[in-house]
Automatic annotation (TrEMBL):
Gene Ontology CC entries for this record: cytosol
Gene Ontology MF term list: hydroxymethylpyrimidine kinase activity; phosphomethylpyrimidine kinase activity
Species, as recorded: Pseudomonas rhizosphaerae
Domain Pyridoxamine kinase/Phosphomethylpyrimidine kinase, first and last residues per copy: 17-253
InterPro entries: HMP/HMP-P_kinase_dom, PM/HMP-P_kinase-1, Ribokinase-like
Enzyme Commission number(s): 2.7.1.49
Matches recorded under SUPFAM superfamilies: Ribokinase-like
Protein name (Swiss-Prot/TrEMBL): hydroxymethylpyrimidine kinase
Pathway(s) served: Cofactor biosynthesis; thiamine diphosphate biosynthesis
Pfam family, one: Phos_pyr_kin
Amino acid sequence: MNIYSSRPVVLCLSGHDPSGGAGLQADIEALLAQGCHAAPTVTALTVQNTVNVSDFRVLDREWILAQANAVLSDSPVAAVKLGMLGSVDMVATVVELLSAHPHLPMVCDPVLRAGGGGSLGKDEVGYAMRERLLPLATIATPNLPEARILADLPDGSADECAEKLLPFCKHLLITGGHGDEHEVHNRLYSRDGSRRTFTCQRLPGSYHGSGCTLASALAGRLALGEGLESAVQSALDYTWRTLRDAEQLGQGQFVPRRLPLDFCS
């Protein structure tokens, strides 16, 4: 029997996307690509495809806690990645769970809108995440529309949203790509006042699951022990490559190619 050194385990709490473009499948693939093992806890079931989301159902609190605690009691979890929660009650459940494990680095991807624009939680979910969940996060990774919801600034710039949100979280990565700029600007803000902008070439088209891909890759880099700023750069570079190689698997947005074609060969 071959004995391999263990890969870092990343606990993922997110929704299931039946199209496979976003949600837990995105988490699993992105973490595999980092050399990590994803331990997925299903928070919600969605009805969606590459075009948009039409419905979702959040799972019961007891089921979430049972899934996550089964992993935490068995495996040496190295990091946590949060995706879709979908309700204020689910935010409270995850806060309860993570408060018992404050040593774990946690990446919070505040999934509030699908790529096609459909809602994945009422706006009060964003308020609950800001007030209760962001203080537990190592870093939050909203795109600009999500940052505006979290900050309650409907027309706010990235800088304005960061000023409003940094009292709640230590580090904030506000991703770009939602305007008409030729380059995408991804801005990393820290509570100590430091900031850095990462730029990359803007790619044509729109993508389903890019935020999940980025947050999961970042959680994987942190689980591997990489420093925060270097981990952000690694995750952004990896995500850009997945978008460059994305596939149109349906009638809507392109799906990032998170694993090489010869991954299983």
